[in-house]
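Incident log, structure service

09:12 report received: a user says their structure output differs between two submissions of the same chain.
09:20 pulled the input from the user's history:
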Amino acid sequence: MNDMTVPAAFSAADYKSGTKPVWCPGCGDFSVLNAVTKAFALLQLPPHQVAVVSGIGCSSRIPAYTSCYGFHGVHGRSLAAATGLKVARPDLTVLVAGGDGDGYSIGGNHFLHACRRNVDLTYIVMDNHVYGMTKGQASPTTEPDWDNKLAPGGTKIRAFHPLVIALAAGANFVARASSSDPNGLAQILAEGIRHPGFSFVEILSPCVTFRPEQREWKSQVHPASVEVTDDPARAARRIMTDDGFNIGVLYAGKRTPYPLGRERSAEPTSALEAEFAL
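09:34 re-ran on a clean worker, output below:
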């Protein structure tokens, strides 16, 4: 007979919902979803103690594909919703999922201040350098010379550098991973979730529909040649000089997260109602 005092182990399958993903064949987000569930299994997180929050975009469908609590918010506001959730419920593990358009364009200001506040949550951004769901427009991370029907000859605008921005704004954990290595990605995600404070993981996740050349990313990614550092100056130098395909944890800081771990005592609803009585 099984010992009922010993909790059952969770497998990756325990974190998947019955909803079938509708991404394009070959999309890197399939591997990201698998890596997310593997990371939860590595950490043995009960599904009811995990919340997955997203905004709008192909990658933001992820909450529907998990069995955890999920919140599919409006465009660019996932970090605002996730911050409020984590501050109100510090007992929950909060994972935020988005893409380069949702996170760095309309959501750019929230990204900066989420790094600065250093609330203990994990933000993963599936970056494919294009707006995939809305048919291939240039995104903030698109190369300035990428020629396409909507911007012939390219936008000529300098690409956004999320890792540098995250470090400068105060993120406590900064990493890059690839959807072509779901096991390695799962390990990095688990490290980010365990690390206190705001953790940011950039995931190279190809959009083979609008950027078929990104199939080559699988052969271009490589492990970072230097060890992780807790020195922001060293981390900045390595991030500014890398080729965009270094994979691994680039910075793991020691900032104290907000909030400072003070748990709220449970109050009866009658006490809360009394505060608003006229």
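09:41 both user submissions now match this output. Likely a transient worker issue. Closing.
09:42 reviewer note: The chain has one domain: 20-275. The mean pLDDT is 92.
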